[in-house]
Amino acid sequence: MKINGKLAVVTGASRGIGAATAILLAEKGAQVILVARSKSDLLHVATRIRQAGGIAYIVASDLADAASTRNAAQAILQNHGVPDLLVNNAGAGRWLFAEETPEGEEDVMIALPYLAAFRLCRAFLPGMLSRRSGMILNVNSPASLIPWSGATGYAASRWALRGFTEALRADLHGTGMRVCEVMLGETSSNYFEANPGSYLRLPKLAKFLPLLTPEEAAWYIVKAVRQNRSTYTAPFLLAVNRFFLGLMPGLFKRISWKSDFPHP
After folding, report:
1. pTM beyond 0.85, yes or no
2. Could you say which of 154, 199, 220, 232 is catalytic?
3. Distance between CA 61 and CA 63 in Å, rounded?
């Protein structure tokens, strides 16, 4: 996909990977629509893009809420038209065992990322299909391949997103649309500071992978867009692990489980 002049929607764009991706897409010439809950944070990112000569718009929306997501999609279609690229990056979820998870929190985990991605795709697909072009890119976690102990609802929501991605790819085969999944390793953010104790649950194997910056993660996402990739896994060592998981799933899972956080 040629990014210059395209209309791109990026969710979870107020900080981290989403903000870095929006900034890089704008640098490549895309008109970017930033979607997240915090209007003030979105304004900060949009201002940065505009000061660099890019084009950015903001839509403040709680994508965990169906009505808010529907209103955001309608506003984008009415004010800007059908996007050429949808980057579903918004996500939520603490790393908790099932019995630790407060009632109702599992609903938010499923809503972000899976239901938000589903609802936005449902809103934008009719226009994309009539145009017979466009890309939907879902940003996912390694937990969607091999869950680790102590992150039950989190992993389940990522499996839902991966299943949706695969089903959507089958749906859209031959339509001119592209569906891409970008799977990223651990990326520097304030997640562990905001969720004390979660870092202890990171599998020991994952700690051997290089830590990505949001800017590096954005570079991989934009590379996947430009190359029309169906999947992209980064960093390289994570891609190697994914290969061996597909080759020897039983052995790889046993090795992984030995490095997991033990159930108390």
Report:
1. yes
2. 154
3. 6
